[in-house]
Amino acid sequence: MKNLKQLCVFAALVFSFSVSATTVPDKLLNMPMHLISGKSISLADFKGKKPVYLKFWATWCRPCIKEMPHFEQVQNKYGESINVIGINLGVNDDLDAVKKIIKEFSLSMPVAIDESGDLAQAFKMVGTPYHLLFDKNMNLIHRGHEANESLDNKLALVSKTKPVDLLDIALLSDSKSNIKLTLNDGKTHALFFTATWCDWYLKDSRPSVSKNCSLAQASVNELSKEYPGIIWRGIISRLWTGDKDLLEYKNKYQIAHKLSIDKNNQLFHYYSVKDLPTLILVKNNKVILKTTSFIDNDKLTESLVSNQ
User: At residue 12, does pLDDT exceed 60?
Assistant: First the structure.
């Protein structure tokens, strides 16, 4: 009887912990999400109240657009029991484009634009669409890139406050090494930010961006030869990109300068790169030029001549 009583007490303690504890660190709990309505919210606002379903997306992301009817269905079905929030990536996007998609699919959930890139960085977003589901106590219970049966099952469970297996919060922590750059050596460094896919994937949805990505890479190839006194380096977006993609991209454009995938999104976030492609000139850790224009850019040419 004594052992049974002790077991009951232990079970009660475990249960009380599970319904109130969270595996999400305070930084993530209090990370502000700035809605296009003008209101700011965070996961902390909903802790202990309702589960939260976050979905990162972009207007030019074809799978994202394909999933929009499902996204609105989730809002219609679970809006009373789950906080459904859309987060636009803010990369090569603007408010007008976001509003156009909201209108096209009659989206009724709150929507934020990650203009600073802080949300994508904090939640380790490596590609859109990106689904994150937290239970009522802000424990991470789902992380993925598809609106599939696994996500639907977990949405159904948490909407009825039924327990769901927790994921390791380490999934949202840094696990890859940063790109090591020495930018305080008195030399000028040209950091070219682009993506292996922006020339072909955006061909239909963002034709001007697609063309600019291609022209910019060709331009940087020539500039790196013309100004060898400057240290050139391609910083490649981690979105949907692995080592094989990097090699194919390098061969496609016959790139001679060094290329690195920004696997932790460290440099994209630090330099607030939200448009592809972008070129940043850095000397002694100071940004001396940041531009998205590569053709007939007198200011770029002047900076390269004076800083090589």
Answer: no
